[in-house]
Amino acid sequence: MIFLVALIIAIAVLLILSGPVFNGPVGSNAQNAPAVVPVAGVPAMIPAQAMLPAAEIVSKSVTCQVTGLLEMTGTVKNNVAHPLSVSVRGTGYDSNGNEMGTGYDSVDIDPYGTGTYRINVIDGCQLGDSGTYDVRISQITWRYAG
User: Fold this and answer.
1) Per-residue pLDDT reduced to its tens digit, 60-84
2) Is residue 39 classed exposed, middle or buried when 0-12, 13-18 and 19+ CB atoms within 10 A define those classes?
3) pLDDT in tens, 3-50
């Protein structure tokens, strides 16, 4: 009997010393966030906002011609307040993942505007083959407005 009373007291002391299990009101899933205290002499870190890239491809389409010409077209968007020149690279692959060919296009885009690209890769595909393609920005340069 003394052992049982001692066990109950030990459990109660552990619960009291460990603090509350839930910080929110009863029946709530809300919990309080811990306070962040910066180290003396070190500025507090502020989480950075997610940054958009200067330019991004917003649409893409591909056509494989009977002649084996792979035609890739789409739209590039400028996310900054400065004119850009964007180089776009397109690569065609066969169904085994082997590179068939690569082509490039350069697109000049006004601030916050869009521009279209057209890439033709000779022998970049085989009609009837379930190959794939990849289109990506290879270089972004600032254009001088003038």
Assistant:
1) 999 999 999 999 999 999 999 999 9
2) exposed
3) 666 667 767 665 565 554 444 444 444 444 445 555 556 555 555 555
The answer to the question of residue 10 being in a domain is no
The structural domain count of the chain equals: 1
The 10 Å CB-count burial string (b at 16+, else e) for 3-32 is eeeeeeeeeeeeeeeeeeeeeeeeeeeeee
CATH code for the domain in which residue 79 is found: 2.60.40.10
Asked if residue 71 belongs to a domain, the reply is: yes
pTM value is 0.63
Give the Cα separation of 94 and 119 in Å (integer). Answer: 17
Domain membership of residue 117 as a residue range:
55-142
In a domain, 110, yes or no: yes
